[in-house]
TrEMBL record, chain A:
Taxonomic lineage: Eukaryota, Metazoa, Chordata, Craniata, Vertebrata
Name of this protein: Elongator complex protein 6
Subcellular location: Cytoplasm; Nucleus
Pfam family, one: ELP6
Chain's gene name: ELP6
CDD domains: Elp6 (cd19495)
Length: 266, 424
């Protein structure tokens, strides 16, 4: 969790909002630091997190999480974190027929229709615990990232349906949050990705967009972050609030500053 | 300094819903730290793998790509468990050379090789590998050493001064397993005895197409399914992932080289038509990466991306690979006669470098890189604009030079992409 980003978003782990869909997207740069931020943020906020990690291994997130002050192994052992490691499970699913439906079942099928097994997995993982233990604050679903599902053969509509089902269960029924990362392919004509990105943009409450600088590579400013607050359910006449900051990623944190105010320049 | 990633013995994954039950987690992505159940012997397990070294930044285990210049640009080398994707140049001259350097480095270091190709028989590819550069007077010593290496068990376990065990052994020959990254002479062939002494597996796609499939037909093309099964078989049977109880856990790296992936010879039609099978290649890359992350192996893939009709696939493939390097040769293009490029044979673009176990990564400041192949060496250098020595610095000559430098602009897309040419 990056304290500066918390200030920009005006949240702290104690007063995390509920029932929100946050969309992370990156264009021409790597937005994975946002995923690490939200993962550590919600773990510190004492929420039950279901992390569908399709793109990197568990130890990658664990090591970065330790730099940010959370231990994923401890969270997983005590039940706060449910981790679906996409890369490792894909090998199991692909080479061996599974007895029961596996969340990544679509890897084996030629024309998978929908992501229902994955949704069932999420629903099961974020089921409220009934036996009176110390309850976690609210369930959170974190997906890294959704564009990989498109590469693996699912259509944009199937992924949108999956998010819709998850929103109904996690956000509305259980008052939890969803955070998902989608890559913005920019000007390469990836139609499916654009459909997915536009569809999700219309449904989200908060959009964090990490972009590369239009002028190219810079050593001191790694990119630009656009924050957009929206209210999708109530069409408002006032404009959605938006802020733009530039950032530099360091070893254990990310520093944000206004455009053109990088410490290297001042 | 001995920050080395140790072999994890299952990171206590009791609560995970999808952990493969009871399997030992072999991944090099774990930093050395205080181990609950570890003893001193666990330190020596991964330390003594020949041809690897830990990364300075995050303790990640690295292997050399065969080109020390490229290793430096990639932050020290290729991380074990990752995929290096080479976007081929137009006539596949320099990318096949990089492929051979990668395999030759594996032979010199004693790694196991897995060569997959749909165009040439892997045995023929191995015959064509370049010879390592040696001093002539120590070549004889090296030949002797090469024979003794296989038999001598030199890892005597030190109990008191165990840190000394981590130091690389000093050897006489310039080509030795303790050195990281060797130089190759592209004009000579690798000595036959080295090739025969090495352990390699070949996958030649036309030969393997007739056996039965025991996987349900998913959207992967036939050639890819067979290749994945082959790779998984080798990893399992030779113990690279530590899951086979009958084989002792390997202390060696498996170098996988796949040539011309995505070309029509593999049965994939993305290079032929725009609406081809758009998920076959990406699914293959995903499962391959899953295999690599859970074993001690590193993979280099060359792919003719300039032939892929659907540009969306290229961006998806880039997102699914860890390191992506693009080669652009000047042969046959108008740049061959451009005075700006007269010393070089092509441009090299580092399109993507992974951030492994870290928020940041090593990235070089130099974005305009060019390569040239001299008689013995393949060098990568920063592209210099030649000095403008004309008597009258006329407007037209400046325009000629400004044109190609504008085209270099998009080649900086590693950290942030910029397309606008800003005239300073």
């Amino acid at each position: 969790m990056f304290p500066e980003l918390n200030n920009l978003l005006n949240t702290t782990p104690d007063r995390a909002e509920q029932g929100k869909l946050t969309l992370l997207c990156d264009a021409n740069t790597d937005g994975s630091f946002l995923v690490h931020h939200f993962l550590s943020f919600y773990l510190k906020a004492n929420c039950k997190v279901c992390f569908v990690a399709l793109i990197q291994s568990f130890s990658h997130y664990n090591i970065v999480g330790q730099k940010l002050g959370v231990s994923l192994t401890v969270a997983r052992e005590c039940g706060q974190l449910v981790f679906l490691e996409g890369l490792k499970s894909s090998v199991d699913v692909f080479f061996r027929a599974q007895a029961e439906p596996h969340p990544l079942q679509f890897l084996r099928e030629a024309n998978a229709e929908n992501l229902q097994p994955l949704y069932e997995f999420v629903r099961e993982a974020l089921k409220p615990v009934d036996d009176g233990e110390a309850a976690w604050r609210c369930p959170v679903l974190l997906v890294d990232d959704l564009s990989v599902l498109l590469s693996l053969g699912m259509g944009a509509v199937a992924v949108l349906d999956f998010i819709h089902y998850c929103r109904a269960t996690v956000c509305w029924e259980r008052k939890g949050n969803i955070v998902a990362l989608v890559h913005d392919s920019g000007d390469t004509e990836d139609e499916e990705n654009n459909i997915l990105l536009n569809g999700l943009s219309h449904q989200s409450h908060l959009i964090l967009r990490a972009e590369g600088l239009p002028t190219g590579f810079c050593r001191d400013v790694h990119g630009q972050l656009r924050i957009l607050w929206r209210t999708p359910s109530q069409p408002t006449t006032q404009r959605d609030r938006s802020l733009t900051y530039q950032y530099k990623i360091q070893d254990k944190s990310v520093s944000f500053f206004a455009k053109g105010m990088s410490p290297a320049v001042l | 300094m001995a920050a080395v990633a140790t072999c994890g013995t299952g990171a206590g994954s009791t609560g995970s819903m999808v952990a493969a039950g009871g399997k030992n987690n072999v991944t090099s992505f774990q930093r050395r730290g205080p181990r609950a159940s570890g003893s001193d012997s666990s330190y020596s397990r991964l330390v003594s793998i020949a041809g690897t070294r830990p990364s300075v930044r995050n303790g990640q285990l690295l292997v050399s790509t065969g080109l020390p210049a490229l290793d430096q640009l990639l932050g020290g080398g290729l991380a074990v468990g990752t995929v290096l994707l080479i976007e081929e140049d137009k006539y596949n001259i320099y990318s096949s050379l990089l492929f051979k350097y990668f395999l030759a480095e594996g032979i010199i270091n004693g790694h196991t090789l897995l060569v997959a190709s749909a165009k040439e028989d892997p045995a023929d590819i191995l015959q064509e590998l370049p010879a390592p550069l040696l001093d002539d007077n120590v070549k004889k010593d090296f030949d002797e050493d090469a024979c003794n290496h296989k038999t001598a068990e030199s890892n005597i376990k030190m109990k008191i001064a165990w840190r000394y065990q981590l130091l690389p052994k000093m050897e006489a020959g310039p080509v030795s397993s303790s050195r990281f990254g060797h130089y190759y002479d592209a004009s000579k062939k690798m000595p036959q005895e080295l090739i025969e002494a090495s352990k390699w597996h070949g996958f030649f796609s036309p030969e393997k197409s007739s056996s039965t499939l025991n996987i349900e037909p998913c959207s992967l093309t036939h050639g890819y399914i067979k290749l994945l099964q082959f790779i998984q078989n080798i990893i399992y049977e030779e113990g690279f992932d530590g899951s086979n109880p009958q084989v002792k856990k390997q202390k060696n790296i498996l170098r996988i080289g796949i040539q011309n992936l995505g070309s029509p010879l593999w049965g994939d039609d993305i290079c032929c038509t725009e609406n081809g099978n758009s998920h076959s290649l990406t699914k293959f890359l995903y499962v391959l990466r899953g295999l690599l992350r859970t074993s001690l192996s590193a993979c280099m893939i060359t792919m003719p991306t300039h032939l892929i009709q659907n540009k969306a696939i290229i961006s998806r493939v880039t997102n699914l690979s860890d390191t992506v390097v693009g080669l652009e040769s000047f042969i046959g293009s108008e740049r061959e006669t451009n005075p700006l490029y007269k010393d070089y044979h092509g441009l090299i673009h580092i399109r993507q470098i992974p951030r492994l176990n870290n928020l940041i990564y090593d990235v070089s400041d130099v974005k305009d890189l060019a390569f040239k192949l001299k008689k013995k060496l393949f060098t990568i250098e920063r592209l210099h604009l030649p000095p403008d020595l004309s008597d009258t610095v006329s407007r037209s000559s400046k325009q000629d030079l400004a044109e190609p430098s504008k085209l270099l602009g998009p080649g900086c897309g590693v950290m942030a992409g910029g397309k606008k040419h800003l005239d300073f």
